[in-house]
Each structure stands twice: as C-alpha cells, then as structure tokens.
Specification:
This protein has 334 residues and is mainly α. The protein has one domain. It is 72% helix and 0% strand. The chain contains 16 helices and no strands. α4 runs antiparallel to α7, α10 packs antiparallel against α13 and α12 runs antiparallel to α14. The two termini are 40 Å apart. About 3% of the residues have low confidence. This is NADH-ubiquinone oxidoreductase chain 2.
C-alpha cells in the first residue's frame, strides 16, 4: 500500500495543478507558469532517502527542464525578429521536455536512478502538459519537425532497448518508442493521441505495479521468483505483450487506430513502415523478457513471497484482456 508523506501530498497536488494550468490556459505566460509549477513540484517528488541515486536523477531532470524553459522564454524575442522560427523552437523545447528523440539523452539515466512510482509519473503524467501544448501549436507548416521526431523516437526506442537488461531502462526506451506513435497521432487529431496516451498509461501502470511490488530492477530477478509466482509471471507476460502491442490485448487497439488513420489520410507509407518496424523490435525484447521468465528458473534461489500477493497483480493484469469483452458490450448495447 502506497502512503504519501505530507510533503509528497503537497507537491503532488501542485504537480497536477501545474498540469491543469498548462492545459487550460490561453496565454503563453500562463503556459510557461504551469510548466514551471509542474517542474518545481516534481523535483522534490523524485528525491528519496532510500535511494542514493535519486538526488542525481533529480538534478539531471531539473537542469534539462530548466534548459527547455530558458529556450521557451528565448523564443519570445526571436519571434519579434523572425516569427516563422518561433514555433519550430517551441516544438523542439516540448520534445526536449517530454524526452522524445533526438532530445532523449536525459530520459534513460533519470529513469534508472529513481523508484518505480516516480518512474511511472515520469513516463505518463509528466508528458501530458508538453503533448497538449504541442497539439495546440502544431500546424501544417512545422509538422515536419514532429514527423522527424516521431521517426527518430520510434527507431531509437526500438534499437536501443535490444541490448538492455535493466528493467527501468527497458521501459524508458519503450516510452521513447511509444512517443513516436503518440507524435504520429498528434498530427492527425487530438482525440487520437488522448486515446493512445490513456491506453499506454493503463498498460504501463499494470507493468510497473508488478515490477514495483516485487522490486524487480533486472531481468535476472524475474528468474528467481518462488513457486507461487506462476500467476505473477503470467500477469507480467500479458502486461509486457500488451505494452508491445500484440493483438488482441489492450495495447494493440491504439496502434490499430493510428494505423487506420494513416491509411485513411494517405500519409507517408515510409513513416508508417518505420513505426511498424520499431513496434516489432520492442515486441521482440518484451518477448525476450517474458519467455525467459517462463522457460528459465533457478530452483535453489527461490525468494520468499506471500502467495496472496500474485493474486492482486494477476487480477490487475486482466485489464489487458479487456478488448475481448468489447463484442459483449456491443451486443448488450444494441
């Protein structure tokens, strides 16, 4: 059970307040103020007394976000001289803040030094404000920046995750890959990226909940679970495959909607092919983790775990099978 301390509760409330200000504001100054409030609230949440690397990750995150805010403010005087350069600069600042390629260099190191709950916030909640701002400022004239960032993010996330054995870095590169799909969804319409982001957040939460409840930070730790961990391994297996976008799991539905939008709008076939190739790469290293957890084990290194703990994680992973119930829902409606 997660119990928030008073300072964490305070900074969590101001964190969401900054997101709400950014999403609902109609002026550039209020947008900047919401981003800064969100930044100053998230840095104390990153720090932890039980993790000596969290201070380093918090400092890295603060410096990168402060750099992005400085460029964001610098876009204002530039717009007085060359107005056409203002929006590409703002788009690149937002790409830096959300950790999309080619400005992704800070994201995996920060993820590696923080705890699982903070990592989940960094992968999901902290992307809401930059993505919503990007959907507002995006236009046809500067969409080439988003297209190139989508291609780079999908390739970097797929290729860089192949040689990773640390689970937090695997999920960080997975998040970068999913950013490529979300950037593709932004170029079409706003409801599409909201659906994709919501599905990604749900599936990522199911994966992080399993890894956090068992304190799994390396692939080898999955192999030393006890005899009661078969439901736990099955739930992790379903969650990872759903995160990779394998049908008929929940993670496949938003990808299918993006692919359908690509086909209907007759967008670039090369762009869609790169996204699909990167999805196969991410599915490969998910399968490597999932299959190794089933096929390999160390009987002499069984850890003691409560046999009731996997029941909760197994129940939570059933959210990934929710698309199988959609036909029944349609039958009930009609």
């Amino acid at each position: 059970m997660l119990i928030l301390s008073p300072h964490q509760l305070l900074f969590s409330s101001t964190l969401f307040l900054g997101i709400f200000i950014t999403v609902s504001s109609s002026s550039w100054f209020m947008l900047w103020m919401g981003l800064e409030l969100n930044l100053m609230s998230f840095v104390p949440i990153l720090t932890s007394t039980s993790n000596r690397y969290s201070a380093e990750s918090a400092l890295k995150y603060f410096l990168i976000q402060a750099l992005g805010s400085a460029f964001f403010l610098g876009a204002a005087p530039i717009s007085m001289l060359m107005y056409s350069f203002m929006f590409p600069i703002i788009l690149m600042v937002l790409l830096l803040k959300m950790g999309a390629a080619p400005f992704h260099f800070w994201f995996p190191p920060v993820m590696q030094g923080i705890q699982w709950p903070q990592a989940l916030l960094l992968m999901t909640i902290q992307k809401i404000a930059p993505i919503s701002m990007m959907s507002v400022v995006l236009s046809g004239a500067n969409s080439i920046v988003v297209i190139m960032a989508s291609i780079f993010s999908s390739l970097v996330g797929g290729l860089s995750g192949l040689n990773q054995t640390l689970t937090r870095k695997i999920l960080s590169y997975s998040s970068i890959n999913h950013m490529g799909w979300m950037l593709g969804a932004i170029t079409f319409n706003e409801p599409l990226w909201i659906i994709y982001f919501s599905s990604y957040s749900i599936v990522s939460s199911s994966v992080v909940f399993i890894l956090h409840s068992n304190q799994i930070f390396h692939i080898n730790q999955i192999l030393v679970m006890n005899l009661f961990s078969k439901p736990l391994k099955l739930s992790l297996f379903l969650s990872l495959l759903s995160l990779g976008g394998l049908p008929p799991l929940l993670g496949f539905l938003p990808k299918m909607m993006v692919i359908q939008e690509f086909i209907n709008s007759k967008a670039s076939l090369l762009w869609l092919s790169i996204l699909l190739l990167s999805a196969l790469l991410t599915l490969f290293f998910y399968l490597r983790v999932a299959v190794s957890s089933f096929m390999l084990s160390y009987p002499k290194m069984k850890m003691n775990m409560s046999p009731t703990q996997p029941r909760l994680t197994f129940t939570m992973s059933f959210i990934n099978l929710s698309p199988l119930l959609y036909p029944l829902v349609l039958i009930a409606i009609y």
